[in-house]
Structures are given as structure tokens and as C-alpha cells.
Amino acid sequence: MKRSKALILILLVFLAACVGRGEQGVSWQLAKATDLGEATATIVAATSTPPHPLLTYLPPSPRPGEPYLTPTPDNPRDAPFIRTKSEYYTVQPGDSLSLIAYSFGVSPQLIIDANDIVNPNFLAVWQSLFIPAPVLRESGPSFKIIPDSELVYGPAGGLFDLHNVITGWGGFLGQFKEQVEGRELSGAELIQLVANRYSVNPRLLLALLEYQSGWLTNKDVHPDSLSYPMGYLHEDWQGLFGQLSFAANELNRGYYLWRAGWLGPFIFNDGSVVVPGQGINAGTAGVQNLFSHLYPYDQWRTVVGEHGFNQTYHSLFGNPFGVAVEPLHPDVLNQPDLQLPFEVGKTWSFTSGPHSAWNTGAGWAALDFAPPGYAYGCVLSNEWVVASADGVVVRTDEGVVILDLDGDGYEQTGWVLLYLHIEERERVGIGAILHAGDRIGHPSCEGGFSTGTHLHIARKYNGEWIPADGNLPFIMDGWVSGGQGREYNGTLSRGSVIIEAYFRRGLYNQISR
Fold it and tell me: How big is the chain by its Cα radius of gyration, in Å?
């Protein structure tokens, strides 16, 4: 009964845009959950309803007996350097335990245990720390769990009806509510909020939640899962919103590190390190990275193997490679013409080079600009942020405006711009059709985390954050973004002129239109 219920839900999820509930017939009964393209063709022919635009991104279903395709294996990568000897390190000004641990390729917990650190948030400058050598374990499995398009919130997730799926299963999640940022949100609204902000597929988040706590299918859940439904036991990430945010951030971290050429290793709390398996794709690296924070090494190998999380995903939604959008973007991808996001005749400060688009794991896709003025902190500004290109506003959130540049009305397709820290006062509304230079709103500290009034701007293509320091940099009014190998450090260059990011208003970080 449960499997039949799952199959019906899958069809509702992907094909509701083509056929209404009142039009269910023989074609619904014959279709399989994984036969998406075939089922769609049958229903469209029967009803003369044109297919939903997002369905054009999905692959045709394989013929009977034909295997589903998996992503082209990643090019072979050299093994990362792994320390084999213990060392001592002297704490420097500006250090943190997490930064030190990352630089030595070990977990913070390993350093805490080795040095009997009582308060990991307090390190004394010039303090000497013993850094144990990591324990190198067998390389990770090369089993591919999901395609890249199943991790990012792109075309493959654009038709997913989260509310109907959750309601259909009738589990604990369907009745759950939680206060988030002064609003009471349902379970579906919480997952959607996290998916939107991090650009992580809500279908993947739902499958992960089910695997970790059974909230989707079970009415009664373990009391311990109420505070930590994803199983990450940290007081800073309590509740469903906190746990999903942590999960989305680590999914993104693994995904975008892999896309940037990261070699590993995955780092476990017990001191183990694991070099990723050869041939995995970025989507699989993201899932493996998340689970490395949730399980010890021996259990992790099972969880990320064929008989772990993969089985839960298949039982809920079928084969993820059946709806893969490969590749997510063409080999030759060009950014549309963009202008600087402020008005002509104004001079702003370039305050941050390439850094994460959302939280800390979403690639180095964002740049920051601060409005004119000498006041520091979160101050009121009457300066205007403007559209960098023609587009349609498809979503607003706390401090957020999303501008869809291809005009199809979907955040999950084509080029999209994120404007963050846009004050609610005089902020543009959903559905507004803007031309380059039209006003969007005022810079502020609203939304995300901010210590000073500024604009945070980032790009996505088909749901994937596009790094500002990679092969496709920002180009705005001829200014080209560049990185310096460290987050927030970077430049804008035009011809022979180079402007370097600086976190305050300075003599050399001013930029004008």
C-alpha cells in the first residue's frame, strides 16, 4: 500500500501542471513513478494540454529494460596531501578553532580533545596547541547517489509539489509548525523556505529528513528528533528550520567545493579522514559531505552506499537519474549584460570580494557593495539599489529580491540575480517587470547576517550558484570580478584600473557609474 501511495504522489508531483485531479484516468493507472517522460506524453496526447515548460528540461524515459543514465564520471583527481605527523601550532591573532582545524585537515573536536580545551570559543593568542595527525581511512565509495540537478534547486525540482506530497503521506511533518523569524510556518513552508534560500532541491531535503527521522511517513516520531530531526546535535542548530539550514549548507559546501576542484578529504569528528572516491559527481559529494557530519566513518560508508540513503530516496521518489538535467549548463555559457546595481552618478564602496551566496557553503558567488556615507553599522540609507538587467521579480523574502532575467517566471531556470539586504521600505513587489536601472529598494541589514548596511548580490543559472572568482566572473559595466584565494578578498578590474575590496569605505575601494 505504501509503495502504491508513493507512485501516485510522484505522478502528482511531476504532472499536476499537465492534468488536473479531476482528469485522472487510465493513463494515470498505467504510468510508473519513474516513467515520467512516457507518462507525460500519454497524458498530453489524451487531453490535448500542452506540456509544462519545465518538462522540456527533463530527459526522455528509457525504454523497457534500458538502464537510466548516470552522470559522466568526474575526471580523475590527484589524491590530496594528508599529514602523517603530529605538530604544534601557536595561536595567532584572528585565529579560530575551526580555521585552525581546517588548515590542518582535522576536526575541531580532535584538537579540543587533544588539548583539553574547556571553551572552544576562546583561544588565547600565542597559546600552543597540539595538532594530532589525522587517521587516514579507506577511500570513499564511488557509488553515485544523485545527479547534480537533484541537489540544486533547478529545473528538476521546479514542479515538485511539496505540500501535496507531505499531506499525502499523512506523517508527523504534515501537522508540524514552528516559529521562524516571527512567523509560524508549517513543515512544508519551512522546507520551501530553506530550499529557496540555499537553492537546494526540496525533494532532496524531504528525503534526507525521512531517512534521518521518519517525519514524512510516520505519525509518531522519536522524542529526540523533535529538537534535532536531522541528527546534528548542536545547540546552535536546533529545530526543524535550524537542522534543515545546517543540512542545506553542508550539501552546498560539498557540492561547490567539488565543483571548484577540491580533492578532499572528508573529515570526521573521531579524527578519521577519507579521500573521496574516484569518479563521483558534485551532487554525490554534497550528500557524502553532509553525512560525514552526522555519522562515524564505519556507518558513513553504509549510509552513502547503494543500500543506505539511496534506498530511501528510491522508495519515495523513484530513480533520481530519471529526472536528471544533464548538464546543468552548456559548455559555453555567457553571462547576460549586467550593469552595476546602483544609480548613475553615485559612488559606492566595494566592500567584499567573492564569498558564499547564502550562509557559508553556497560557493563564492556573491559580491558586496555599501552605499555612500561615513556612518558604520546598520544605519538607514535612502540610496537606491537598481536592477542590473531587465527581468521579472519572482520572489521576495526578508531582505531578499529575486530577479528572473529570462522572464519565464521561474527561479529554477536560466539566469537569476539575488539581491540581499534590501529594506522592506519601498521594496519592489513580486511580479514587477523591471528594466536595467529601475529601482529595487534600499540597502540595509535586513535578511541573512549583516553587521552593516550594504547590498549582497549573487547569480544563479538553472539553480546553481555561479562563482564570482571562477571561469564566469561577474561583468558589470565592464568591471570584472576576481578572487584572491581567500573568501571576501577580491577585486574588480576594468582595463588597467583595479579596485580591491575593503570592508569599510576607503580611498581605494570606491566605484562609480
Answer: 24
